[in-house]
């Protein structure tokens, strides 16, 4: 579940963001946290696991007129390779239905893989619908 960032979540957000290679330095990390909080079009969201109810991921975005720029995404290492990043992107997409999610140099490969996977799922759903004669 995607949660809006609150100051109560600052330590956990910083802990999760510290897994991002260029945010390992504490002063750099604090600057990034300040950057997200300095303007309305910059947002941090946290991901709460449905299974454990723990906050296991953070996603940082910049909101434009017709797009969302995915600046950072970080997941607790214990929960990696479980499709959490795709679930986070899906929830972000549902939150901003009229906007396209774009990636930075660091996040564009993930966004591209997610879109590719989403395309495969849509194609499979279309095939199932066609087979049932509903299409």
Number of DSSP E strands: 5
Report the average pLDDT across residues. 91
Query: Structural class per helix/strand content?
Result: alpha+beta
Count up the helices. Answer: 4
- Shape estimate: globular
Enumerate the strands of the largest sheet in spatial order, edge to edge or round the barrel.
Answer: 1-2-3-4-5
Fraction of residues in helix: 40-55%
The sequence of SSEs as H and E is: EHHEEEHEH
Radius of gyration: 16 Å
Low-confidence stretches: none
Strand % is 15-25%
Distance between the termini: 32 Å
What does this structure look like?
- 41% of the residues lie in helices and 24% in strands.
- The chain has four helices and five strands.
- A five-stranded mixed beta sheet has the order 1-2-3-4-5, sandwiched between helices.
- A hairpin with a 6-residue loop joins β2 and β3 (55-63).
- The protein is globular and about 60 Å long.
- The two termini are 32 Å apart.
What are the main properties of this structure?
135 residues; alpha+beta; 4 helices
Summarize, please.
The protein has 135 residues and is α+β, with helices and mostly antiparallel strands. It is built from four helices and five strands; from the N terminus they run βααβββαβα.
